[in-house]
Amino acid sequence: MRLVAVFMLLTAFTTVVVVVHARPMGGTGMHPPSVDRRKMSRSSLSAPLSLVDAVLVPNGSVQPQSIAAALDVTIEAVYARSLNRWTVSEWFPADPTIPVIVINGTGGGGGGANACTRLSEPLSSDEQQVFDSSTESFEWCSFSGDASHGRTGPVVYVYGASLRAILYGLADLARTMAVSGQLSYVASFSAPYKAYIALPSAGMHVQSSPAYPLRGHQLAYRSISDTYDTWSWSQMRTYISDLVMFGTNQIEMVAPDQKPSPHFTVADPVEMITSVSSFVDNLQLRFSLWWPLAATYEPSGGDLFQRLARLDSLFIPGGDGSPINPGPRQFLELCAAQANYTNSYFPITKNQPPVEYWVSAQMWNATQMSEFYSLLQFADTEYPWLTGVVYSPHQSDTIQSARARVPQRLAMRHYPDICHATKAELPNFLVVFAIVLHSSFHFTTEPVYLLLLCGVCLMLIGRGWWRCSGIHPLP
After folding, report:
1. 173-198 in b/e burial notation, b at 16+ Cβ within 10 A?
2. Which of 188, 209, 230 is the last residue of a domain?
3. 57-100 pLDDT, tens per residue?
4. Which among 172, 218, 319, 400 could disulfide-bond with 453, CB atoms 3.0 to 4.6 Å apart, if both were Cys?
5. Which residues contact 394 (CB under 8 A, 6 or more apart)?
6. What's CA 402's distance to the chain center, in Å?
């Protein structure tokens, strides 16, 4: 039932009524704690709150130009599913009945009070600590009107701890809306019908903070992909926008393989990758590359690096996907050379943080794995450039034992295959469908981060399931 609900979320806005839910603090198993509190005023359960023709009003310290890309993604997502095109204004509309969505920084932005405090009790001290510790925490609340601003129509306030958090708050708001079969007729033969979109009611209050700081997807534009190589930039942009609407904060592109495809709509894969980098940068999200070592045993990537808008992370796989498979010691030495080379293209600036470097140990035997873990014990002095280790497919030990053997200074990212249809590392509930559409990719991150690798559209449901588990994992 939950997976069916996730599939509905991926194809349209959910009609599920939001109920009170407070996730216990402290996490479950290896999952870190998160906050997901959703409350609704019982007195208004029968009164949907229309957001047809709503106006987005950035307020306080949030300037429209600073979140233009985030607003565009939200507006496009709503329009694609309802034919309602929201607009943006620096001022409240003159008509007090028009629905408005007021966008604020944390605490109201510009020193203003948080309107949501009118609706519910404060978070517990543990919840508040988790909520305040994440720059991606957001909350939103809904009212049938607000006399303080002279509004008699619906008013929704969205607060975010960062511009990225504001985007997730708007996305959560959009996913909570219901799209009705009732159509609002526009008095013009040239204008389309617009679906009726509404929140379940006024008096809603949502506070959310993700469990995992990294929630990404790995995509590819190369000849061996099953669908991506046929996509235009517009289709890739829409796909990434949809991932972001479900909480993705990093896009990781696979290195181009330099093999032509008769299906390419963008002749040069590097052009597609650089377009993704620019789009992700505009949304102030993370951009990463999956970058295997070169067959020449030399650092590589300069031609691409100099064209990227940003680079937050480089994942260098050991074994799987690499044209060479040296032993652990030589592998780490080659990775160090690649890190130094990459850093020369990405000096640290206000908009370019230090590039993170991640490695995996795949397809290695027990002796090689023991050597790899032994070498990591000297990471502080021998490999200071190393950010973390990626727990991956084709690895013999469990994630629990891997975490125990990797020094605590190093983060760990889980990279399960949830896209090869018949062997995905996820409950395979559509066996026949999987066999018919055999092929594809995916990945995630425990116990510190979560990330997904996608190959084809087969894994829409799996992708959504993993994405939601990255924000608020099931107990």
Report:
1. bbbbbbbbeeebeeeeeeeeebbbbb
2. 209
3. 998 777 777 789 999 999 999 999 898 999 999 999 999 999 99
4. 218
5. 319, 320, 362, 363
6. 25
